[in-house]
Amino acid sequence: MKKEIELLAPGGDIDSIKAAILAGANAVYCGLDRFNARNRAINITFDDLNGILRLAHTHNCEVFLTLNIIIVESEIPALFTLLNKLVNTSLDGIIIQDLGVFYLLNKYFPTLKIHASTQLTTHNEGQIKFLSQLGATRVNLSRELNLDEITTLTAVSHEHDVLTEVFVHGSNCISFSGLCYMSSVQGGNSGNRGQCSQPCRDQYLTTSEGKDFPLNIKDNSAYSDLGVLYNAGVDSVKIEGRIKKYHYVYTVVDTWRKQLNRFYEQNTIKHDNNDLRKVFNRDFSNSFLKGNISKAVFIDNPRDHSAIHHAQQFSKIEGGTTDEHLATAKRVVFDQKTEIITNIQDQIEQISIEKAPLTISLSGESGAALTVSIKTPETDFDVQSGIKLINVDNNCIDQALVLNRFKALNETEYFIEYVNLDKLPNNLFIPFKELTLLKNKILFILKGSRETYNPVNVPKLKKKTNESLSPALSLLISSQEDLPLCDTTSAEIYFQLPDSFQHRLAEFIELFTHNQRLIPWFPAVLLSEDYHAAVEFLEQVQPVRIVTNNTGVAFTAYKKGIAWTAGPYMNLVNSFSLLCLKENFNCEGAFISNEINKIQIKGIKKPDNFKLIYSISHPIVLMTSRVCMFHQVTGCKKNIVDEKCIQRCERSSSITNLNNVSYFIDKEKGGYHHVYNESNFLNTDIVTDVPNIFDNFFIDLRDIKTSTNIDVDKAKLVSLFGNLLNDDPDSIQKLNQSIYPSTNTQYRKGI
User: Fold this and answer.
1) How far is CA 82 from the centre of its chain?
2) CA 70, 73, 74: angle at the middle one, nearest 5?
3) Domains of the chain
């Protein structure tokens, strides 16, 4: 008998959750109307949740709740209110991104199972170990990984008692999840807050390759790859689609359930995916999984491909795609969807998320114990008081008192339908404390012998009020041509290591060995052998300290006793995320995310002996991608992205949207494709807006081409920023004249 893989389905609303359950999902993931990364979904309320849990568990289906956004300081009290409720439900797991939420769950709500969101971009062994130490029971692996990488990471995960899940169907992001800031910068709708407006799907001015949607990629589908995923040891196959409707969810889950059953029972895989093509899709690709990332991953049309597919099928039969074929296909697809909707709707209406009714009956007499009898559709039981009833003239037990003292039963998968006092004389009394004990006994039984937890108060963190800081300056370079800056400035100098430097490892070991002032700066993405190269680098160089945007490298540095600072792409926006890094991994400092505004920054309380850093000038990275963007923009002779492309290719280009805003595509040797904002970020206001919080202000001096002009050399620029920190009244004007145009929209809008 084969071990079964979990089929994990999306639930953006109640009907979609019901559809997933009916179609045979082993688990559903859904979000409440707050704190989840699909704000465009209808989502559910907390009042719905217990009924959903009851329905799902009746059908042997687990429920995971998505709280997978970054949480700003002002939201922590509301988060605690929610967690105090969730800890007393039968919820099967919580999907999270924010490191502060990891900290709070581990410290105050340890019974809640933690799942690491795809927003954490988990793609190397060190990250698995990092998340394991934070109590994650499963991780969602990055969608960009190939089968070999998935197999390796799954084995490492299992060694650390962590399960792995892999997205196998649905919309695909062109950027590594958690590292896309395009929507945030463009319109203030952060992808790390569930507000992504999907500018990657937008139409742009036609590129030289004749493409109108150069960032749009096909949907992910590993339908034919179930067998190899099974052999890789993957624990859960996950379907994307929390903004999709119930007929989509049912069709996809049902198709995958049949594929799984066929595999278990007959050891065969079906390759015909026509059932999946009946509902919304942008055509399908499994390029990431196959490690075959070619230009075929793109599609120059963001709309529903289902009718186009059927038109193409007609053309194969009759020869040539015509407008008539497309019109016929649209009618066929419409009729198919209508039939699916009608059939599913009938089934959905037959099941309910209503909580189960519960009857309370009280009986007893003076001098005897109080007996409380509970009856539900599934069970009935009695509990008795530990002390005896007494006669009184007032404060007698009545229906209002019972409803008030037992109201917590309504916050379970049940609701109090009726209170029966017929067998209890009307002049009896028992202390309120004893009624509370009886309530807790009832809750324990109703919840399957799970404890009921008292509310936890929000921990009070002290803010240093009298601290006076004189911030220092730090800067980032990536070219050896900038090494003379080591002789002209006292600022800390970070040197950017490429996304992939395994083939240049010896070169970088020599560089840092001979330039002791350089502080290694590790990128956010370090896949497979590049992560191992980073580990080897740390072992050989033994740097005094590093800056890393990758949690895998952070874990390695911690284990080796190397001082480390968390980089700006760790998306740190609250005090508890800083405590998480300091207390769990001996982190000595961190960059605060540039996505948050002045008010949100002011709420952050710095841990003792911990440095805070803010970037005041940098080219704005909008996304980082494993695909080749030049395929759609300027063209490329090679069809596929291979290791030679990563190591040798050095190109740049740009695309312009219909609002005449340009974005710059940059590919450096040893790097992935990055998209940069039209204008660089420059925020001189932060120095006076938020005094005595930051120990260091940072400027990025790498040679990234954008529309921003810098009219002074780097040494002079460093000097101007130094003057800014020394309160030179002319420095702001001089900086604005030297760096133009620029933007600080993120700082003004926040998240």
Assistant:
1) 19
2) 115
3) 6-172+219-291 (3.20.20.80), 356-446 (no CATH), 472-618+680-749 (3.20.20)
Give every strand in the sheet of 356-363, ordered side by side. Answer: 380-388, 369-375, 356-363, 414-423
Burial of 165: CB neighbours in 10 Å, binned 0-12, 13-18, 19+: buried
Residue 382 makes CB contacts below 8 A (sequence gap 6+) with: 371, 372, 373, 374
Distance CA 9, CA 703 (A): 44
- The H-or-E segment that residue 125 falls in is helix 125-133
Q: List the structure tokens of 265.
A: 């029972």
Contacts of 50 (CB under 8 A, 6+ apart): 89, 355, 411, 412, 413
For 485, phi and psi rounded to 5 degrees? -60, -25
Token representation of residue 347: 């089934």
Rounded to whole angstroms, how far apart are CA atoms 295 and 301?
14
Amino acid at 378: E
Residues near 379 by Cβ (< 8 Å), separated by ≥ 6?
none
Burial of 363 (0-12, 13-18, 19+ CB in 10 A): middle
What confidence category does residue 343 fall into, taking pLDDT thresholds of 50, 70 and 90? confident
HSE (side-chain half, CA atoms, 13 Å) at 455: 10
pLDDT one-digit tens code per residue, 200-231? 999 999 999 999 999 999 999 999 999 999 99
What is the DSSP code string of 11-31? Answer: ESSHHHHHHHHHHT-SEEEEE
Looking at residue 106, the DSSP 8-state letter turns out to be H
How many helices (H) and strands (E) are present in the chain, helices listed first? Answer: 26, 32
pTM exceeds 0.70, yes or no: yes
Q: Which residues pair with 131 in a beta bridge?
A: none
DSSP 667: E
- On whether the CB atoms of residues 191 and 117 are closer than 8 A, the answer is no
Phi, psi of 667 (to 5 degrees): -130, 110
Cα→Cα distances 726→147, 471, 602, 617, Å: 53, 9, 22, 17
Structure tokens at 529: 């052998």
**52 pLDDT more than 70:** yes
CB of 134 closer than 8 Å to CB of 585:
no
Which tokens sit at 623?
């996304």
Pick from 706, 704, 738: which is nearest to 721 by CA? 738
What mean pLDDT is predicted for residues 133-160? 98
Tell me the pLDDT tens digit for each residue of 609-653: 999 999 999 999 999 999 999 999 999 989 899 999 999 999 999
607: left (phi over 0), alpha (psi -120 to 50) or beta: beta
Element (H, E) at 362: strand 356-363
Partners of 219 in the beta sheet? Answer: 284
> In degrees, to the nearest 5, what angle opens at C-alpha 589 toward C-alphas 587 and 595?
115
